[in-house]
Amino acid sequence: MAAEEAVEASLVGLSPEQRQPGLENDEDEENPEGGGETAALNGLVVSGNGKSNDVDVKVTKSELETDEKGMEKESTRESDSNILDISSDYPREKHISIQRHLADLEKLADVKEDEKKPCPLCPEEKFRACYNHKLHRHLQNLHWKVSVEFEGYRMCICHLPCHPVKPNLIGDQTFSKMGAHYHCIICSATITRRSDMIGHINRHVNKGETESRFITVPAPKSSLEVLKESATDVQVLPNYSTPHKTDSYFNPKMKLNRQLIFCALAVLAEERSPIECLDAFGATGIMGLQWAKHLGSSVKVTINDCNENSVTMIQENCHLNKMKVKLNIKEEDHDEAVGDEEGNTDTIEVTKMDANVIMHLRSFDFIHLDPFGTSVNYLDSAFRNVRNLGIVSLTSTDISSLYAKAQHVALRHYGCNIVRTEYYKELAARIVIAAVTRAAARCNKGIEVLLAVALEHFVLVVVRVLRGPSPADDSAKKIRYLIHCQWCEERIFQKEGNMVEENPYQQLPCDCHGSMPGKTAVALGPLWSGPLFNTGFLRRMLFEAVQYGLDEAQPLLKTLVCEAECTTSKHFSTHSPYDENKQEECGVYIKTPNTAAESYLLQGKRRSDEVIRSAAKRQKSENSAEHPAFYYNIHRHSIKGMNMPKLNKFLNYLSEAGYRVSRTHFDPMGVRTSAPLAQFKTILMKYSTPTYTVGQAESPVHLTEGVLAEQVQAAATVKAEDVEFLEDDKSGVTAAMFTDDCPTHCAAD
């Protein structure tokens, strides 16, 4: 027992290093002769014999194991802290201004009833030490009530010298003012205003940056949502449909837009293969992934984006869809392959460049532009290197300027003067095409419009590129000004030529200028005056939509075919449209196979045998075959006190009168017809019924031509009398101000 007590007493004064056997052996080797009390104790513990010594050895081993575990825990803590310091700027401990409850904030002050304590978040010169009740009110009113809440924590306002402000120089003295601020719980940034702090936290949340992200190096996978569209999976960040709040923008409402672009690319892939296509603004990469997944080896897809986070998201989405990725960042090629599964031969090239740069450096057969807002800044680069007979499609989402809500922005971006009209959507499409035409003409290229769609959220334009100065001149001649009557909304394009006309109002079919006072018409534009659709291309797009099962695009494409042909016929054949040897698309004849055995793949060369371009044949096309420009809204021109006929019946009435007529996708109640506005109103009035005969709405009241003329003339007379009355009223008030009969002058006299 005495020996055991002596051993325990000797171990109490030893350090953990001296208790480890490895260190003891090293010390024994270095000091074989011993030397002092430590050597004797080591010899007693390690090499001692007897029962007591065995017990002592067991005790020391257990103590050594506990010491080693403690050291391992300390090392892991140090490594974790090093990871935190390296991975992010997130602090190891939250700032004292970030608390969960008000009581936690009061604990920092160590409040006692009989002692004065300073505020933990204010310097002494700002708030002196005080008693319990006063300090409690100060913390509650000044710090806690103006805090910003996030995930159960309160970021209270802080007055400590954490956020220095520029010093104020007053005479020879310098006053260093410390500003009030907030500490961000996520990135530990200091922000002065509460509203700015709330916006700062919201930006973190919208980007998926929460507190857990800064604790661990990789972003949590739970914050990423997987969406599926057209058999393609994409990962998106929270708040993915708001472009200002996320790097990888994905709008589910643009699904129809993506399907139309896919159909256009599928038609081009049938003409020649393989084709190089570019998605200049990839975001999540959904569009390029759909191209590569469905069209396979017939396309070589390049997805570009200038944002690094978007490029990372595109790579992850490619891996998610089992696609090989070829990463190209600033002329540094890095090949990455995912899996070696059978049939996995699709490779997508992902680039991180500015859209203008990549379109200047490389040539493509198909280019799609979908920036946030206007696309006029990228048109010159798009037409610089696009190949002959290639396709350029662009989506413009700046509808506030295109739809005449911000007219000054339309003048700034597109150089067009516009006003809000009943046909404002078609006006927007013609504005965009005019900008595309001018950009292509600067590169000695002409365009042929294949498709123009203007819906609620976007304006989509798809054009085919024709290389050469002659097509460029022909396209530039189709840019004209539009004369629009503000009284009856009649419209007509100005005649081609440079001669100035004495009376431009004579070009309008209406006589509002003669019957109404003042200037009644405005000049809009310059606009594209050519056709907006190509029937052959639209039919082939419809076939591709049916083949790939794009249900949302099929009804719109059927409407577009009817609108391009200006007919109400809705009988479409969904079989292969390649049953003619040649199809004309705006003057370009493309040879297509009759059977599946034949495969004429057009290479897009200028002098190809399959492609015949002739200016004479383009001029030979009849103007009557083109659809009429613009449309009329049936509700806009309805007669007050009369019930209009059904829209489909009204289309039949116009067709029976000998006019070409169709519905339009621009307006659900719009009618595209070759009839002038006067005849349009006459037929509408002829088949309208009075409001009081609701039961006889199906049987139209056939009015005589004399009665119709009288009613039209009466309506015009009423409008003229109202205008004359207003003019007389204004002139009378103006004259009374300068005569002695004015009551104001009489009272003054």
Automatic annotation (TrEMBL):
Superkingdom of origin: Eukaryota
Biased composition (Basic and acidic residues): 53-80
Gene Ontology MF, one: zinc ion binding
Gene: Trmt1l
Keyword Iron-sulfur among record annotations: no
GO biological process, one term: tRNA N2-guanine methylation
A GO cellular-component term linked to this record: nucleolus
Region called Disordered, residue ranges: 1-80
Family affiliation: Belongs to the class I-like SAM-binding methyltransferase superfamily. Trm1 family.
Xref: PANTHER family: N 2 ,N 2 -DIMETHYLGUANOSINE TRNA METHYLTRANSFERASE (PTHR10631), TRMT1-LIKE PROTEIN (PTHR10631:SF1)
Domain C2H2-type: 184-204
Gene3D superfamilies assigned: N2,N2-dimethylguanosine tRNA methyltransferase, C-terminal domain, Vaccinia Virus protein VP39
Keywords recorded for this protein, A-Z: Isopeptide bond, Metal-binding, Methyltransferase, Nucleus, Phosphoprotein, RNA-binding, S-adenosyl-L-methionine, Transferase, tRNA processing, tRNA-binding, Ubl conjugation, Zinc, Zinc-finger
Protein name from the UniProt record: tRNA (guanine(27)-N(2))-dimethyltransferase
InterPro entries found in the cross-reference section: SAM-dependent_MTases_sf, Trm1, tRNA_met_Trm1_C, Znf_C2H2_type
